[in-house]
Specification:
mainly beta; disordered C terminus
Length: 983
Amino acid sequence: MRTQTSLVAPVLLGSVILFAGFVVSDSSVTRDTSTSAAAGASSAPHGPAHGPAPTPAQLAGAERALAAKRSKLETRGPKAFDQPDKAAEFFLEQRFVPGTRSFPAERLFVEDQRLRERERRLDLERASAVANGDEADAPGGITAWDWLGPGNIGGRTRALAIDPTNPLVMYAGGVAGGVWKSVDAGANWNTTDDLMLNLAVTTIVIDPVDSDVIYAGTGEGIYPHPLMLQGLGVFKSVDAGATWSQLSGTVVGVPTGAFHFVNKLVISPNDNDRLYAGTRTGVWRSDDAGVTWTHRLGNPTYLSGPSDSNGSVAGCLDLAIRSDSDPDVLFASFGNLEKDGLFRSTDGGATWLEAVMPSNMGRTTIAIAPSDNDVIYLGMADNGTVNPVGQLVNIYRSLDGGLTYTPQVDMGSLTGPWLYSNLVFATGCFGTETYSQGWYDNALAVDPTDADVVWVGGIDLFRSDDGGVNFEIASYWFFYQDDPWPPYQLHADQHTLVFHPGYDGTTNQTMYVGNDGGLYRTDNALAATSLNDCPSKSVDPLPGIVWQHLNNNYGVTQFYHGDSAAVGDVYVGGAQDNGTSRVTSAVTPDAWDAIFGGDGGYVAIDHSDPDIMYVEYQGLGNMQKSTDGGETFVPTNEDMLGEEGAFIPPFAMDPSDPLVLWTGGHYPWRTTDGAGVWEIVGPDFLDAEVISAIAIAPTDGNVVYLGFTNGYVAKSSDALAPAPTWTVYEDDLWGAWVSSMAVDPVNPDIAYVTYSSYGVDHILRTIDGGGSWFPLDGDIVFGGIPEIPVHWIATRPCNGNQLYAGTELGVFVSDDAGLTWDPANTGLAHTIVECLDWQDCDTLVAFTHGRGAYRTDLAPCLITVVVGGTFGAFGVPTLTTSGLFTGGSLVNINLTKAPANAPTLLWISTQSEPLQALGGTVHANPFAFQFLLIADGSGSIDLQGSWPQGIPAGSQFWLQFLVEDQTVIDGITLSDAIRITTP
């Protein structure tokens, strides 16, 4: 990397001109409350009075949030509310091709096209069957999925664009949620074409001449790592978002990976066919509406151009263009955790000038004042060489179109260096944790009508009314546990700030915000701000700016895991940067509420008492327990703090005993008293890295399988013993990330393992307790699954031959123990399905990473009981079953080889309790029910009945046959019976 020195005159260096810059003042500060108070008094001349004081309920909610944060700080030391860098690494590590750091996003795109073709073919086959009078196939009993939400939680949103000719039309980009459209100013949202569903949409621009033309860039390249959330170039819609196509010029005819991370798109104000793209490899230009592209400013770390930056991992993270100049005048900032540079072009990217930046320049955002393009602001985060990574270096301002810049912020004020932090912890209630995230959340915008009003978004949102000298608080995040939120609450981590096209600063003060909680709007952006850094304690005024969420069916929540209550409709899920959320109805997608913070992880609801539940946030040792349905929580497994584990460590509840739970890192931990006491019950599986999946046999809690991040599987057959023995299996397994495991509902020796890594088989089965494994993937064209990550495998409790797989592109099902697979995504789309949970035998819930949660009601589980032998010769026929008689099961009894005088009534009873069946009428016997049987021409008889309460495994019941006149059939009398013992 070249070293730079401040110059007093422009100097030509190759094709890069270094312009005179500025001297940065010392950034070490001390808090001066008198200065900050005086500055604050003169810095908020706008709008109405401050906001209302917090209500007692709001204060209590804030105190709960602060108490949880305080406990976390005391046990773990300072750490951010979320850990976006760790979350991104976790996402990719699960998917890397074994032995590499390769994430082949192109493979996902290819497989998605193959899957779409397979689904089109299946749709035609089913339509043909219906037209011929046949029953259409429903693989796995799934006909359609219903969305559970959350529609009010949102998810990470880095892109928002408003139609300049019709402000009611808006487009938002969810990271892993695709492009969404609203036609009523955010009151409601709907998905557009799902071509980009699993790609990080980071930038959206609308053609200023034809607003039906929209461009979307993919790939979240802000992370300071070589491989992060990769995209697949630029996509274009010419029909207002109804359909999208990948611009081949961002894939073909350019170096591989050139457009994997498109961080910013801008359109020339002089030619709407001219686009510029800021990417990890540099700045690109297209003069033909995206058909072809030329490299104008290179990042030599990856790809050199006619002009080069100084080279950095992140490349170009922001790009801005003046609206009043011809030829185009552009500004491009490079770098994040390493200095790169700020560049300016006055000839549409043909040549570039470099401004002299301070040595600790990190991620830098650019905002040009719409009312005066000569006024330009820079929001600069530290690269870690002077101050901690992500801390504010300063807000710089230029009054001469970018020739010179001066630092603006009064670093001795209360907000001073903490614009990318959170005052509650930097100076206020705690004053102990000064973390900043300017490398991750760094938003900057200038009021369209007043060049002195500038907004900065970090964890919270701040506004300055004096050109960036003094800033005050415009929102708070930590009232997130309140319901409803107070008006000054805004979700943490701001990413984009957009003004209404009709904004005039008086009658229209509407501004939109995109953050890790989705989308928000204020209609009084110039109302009073605040310097209250501890609103739960202080009586100082609070902001008067009122925020309202626009997450109205904006379903982009990124769940890691979820669970549903066995009794009643209660659904709980842990999500990236949205904590753990809960809803208590299957038909209220906009009624989810946050019950715990951080990066929500695994969840377990006690199947005997839905008021008892367990949640976690990132890192081992952060499990919490609630005994009041999620209203309050207490820590449960802090003994594990300090042990290495997965970023989102798995835990599992024993299906037979809700007091038994398992979790772990290098070694397994177990509790047998509902998380009262945890103990280590296994060796240090150091060679196997850390535990990433846990499965417990439904019929025997002693049988526990563990999956590891390097592909190993360990099994114990005496897991409930004081010192269980474990066997580690490697043969026939891949050295890849084990994403889930499942055990057959009847036979503990039959188990399944899934891999989320690319480049391997993704579903394997054992029938000998782990001794040998064989793959079940097949080929998508011939009844298999695509070559994509599989995140979850579930066996149907009432029929172990029915398998359900959550994949990178939706759900696949098998009705024949994995021999063949069919997609089952009607109503679900090709989204990442992280977890599948059985609410009951006929209700399956899917938790997705980017589209929230879904539920489907399956066709009742079909269990066939075959009666062999001949009725004509008296004797007791032999009956066999192919599955468990569990709650809600549909049992099909087929009496084969029946005589002509077949019985027309059937009694069914158990040893104790009567069974209830659809269509049945109660017989005089209180422990029996009777059903009408219909004999077909061949003399066979079919009976179907559904028993909602189920029959436990090992139960016995009797079938008694009678003819219409209640006489005997070939010697079989009322007292005779056929006895069946369930498996």
